[in-house]
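for the writeup, i need someone to sanity check this before i put it in the appendix. the sequnce is what the collaborator sent (i think, or maybe the updated version? ugh). structure was predicted straight from it, no edits. if anything looks off just tell me and ill rerun, i have time this weekend
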Amino acid sequence: MGADTLEARDLHVRAGSFPAVRGVSAPFRAGQFAAVIGPNGAGKSTLLRALLGLNLPEAGEVRLSGRPLREWPRAERARRLAYLAQGEALPLDARVRDVVALGRGAGEWRWGLIPTRPWTRADEDAVTDALTRTDTLGFEHRRVAELSGGERQRVSLARALAGQPRFLLLDEPTNHLDLAYGLEVIRHARCEAAGGLGVIAVLHDLNLAARADWLLLLHGGRALAQGTPEEVLTPANLHAAYGLQARVMRDAGRLIVIPED
């Protein structure tokens, strides 16, 4: 698999002494919104970090654009792969635009934005574009402390997009958000994928995951199923992974998972 792909090949990864990911093979493509789902302890976040090169595999490998991830220079890998960690903290006293500017790798925050290289027109344009795409341009001059949880999540997303990556990896981006903000995050993920970005999100909410283009269902560190939401979100797969009796149906064209008592 070649250009604009991020691929796990027979990946085995430990979390401490525990084998958290066991022989997972999965392809992720640019222009696709993929969701990684599964019960707690299934290995979802460990897999995500392995795809970024943050968790080194015990066996198998990750390939970026057909090339082993370990062969990519660190700076180039960081430019192509953006990561939004779960519960990521933002500097509360920072202006929104300054936070997003950090995604350009041209500065750092220590009680103020400190440039680490000359700022360019390309940097400025990339920040404005990221603010626009995440609907945060309207409050670019506000302080982070003044924002709601959903607004802060969009600012974090804008910071990741400012680096103009090829893949965006999100670890539980809807966690601790209410339904409206959760749907908003998924809408932005879908829009970015439609624009050509590869988006990979760890999600717990199956009805939000059903809005993805492609799903990977993990159970016990292994890939139980992968494919379209229709192929993965079946009553049999949900029972095998979650021990859940559920109905899966369509309503207004959307796939819905309804747990049964």
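The radius of gyration is 19 Å. The domain at 5-88+165-259 is CATH 3.40.50.300 (Rossmann fold).
thx in advance!!
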